[in-house]
Amino acid sequence: MYHVNLHVYVLMHNHFHLVVETLHANLSEFMRRFNICYTGWFNYHHKTCGHLYQGRYKAILVDVDNYLLELSRYTHLNPVRKTRLSALTEQWQYLTKYKWSSLPGYLSKSRRLDYINYDLIESMIGGANPYKNYLFDGLENGTPNILDQVRYQVILGDDGFISRLQNKHLKGGSVREQPAYRNINTEFVNPVQVIKCVNDHFGISVEKCRYRHGYGIARGIAAEMLYRYCDLNLAAIGELLGGINYTAVGMLRQRLKEKIKNNHSIEDQFKQIDKKIQALVL
User: Which of 11, 157, 170, 219 could be joined to 63 by an S-S link, Cβ 3.0–4.6 Å?
Assistant: First the structure.
């Protein structure tokens, strides 16, 4: 139905990782369906009800040619990072016996699953045995956290890849029409300018925008705009908004999204401020 290829998956204790290829750029629709179905299955079998996930999923666009192979290894080795096993043989045995992963199918054709596409990753390294050696080498010598190389919060790719994305998705239309690619602009807005735009719109001072109580809409919009346009992590945004922690920043953004859904006035204010900040980018 969704024409999505699943190449790698790992289920952890409280989260999961999927490496998927969307043939029709429909990741949101696929993930919404996936989450609804799995939540229903989980609740039925565990006799529970209600939400299963906390917050929205995090999606990263990957440069296949330069990063997919390493990303697959990082993902497959993830379960052993959460253990206290120190011996290499014990770590490898743990991984090979780990049920909630696509790795067993890469190690043995008899354990392959129909809904996993193994061909692409194996073709990048020459087959199943070379991939097995590649995994073992990563386990033996260690691998850096490839997610630390994510750029603009959504892209895992080199300069050429980002340039192609800019030409394809930004030059053909406005930033507003391509919200998923806002962060790949090479120019970021000064955080002071972002906060000033918000403050000017609401007619409040910088100090009031930093208050922990009151002015929730202004602070929520400021948090969202700082995240979108300033290449700041949540901790840095928290410092700008009065020294709150990153969890509080996340809650501000989440509450804002809920209010936008239910209040057209707040939605209009958000769009007006967004337009002003876009002008600073473009």
Answer: 157
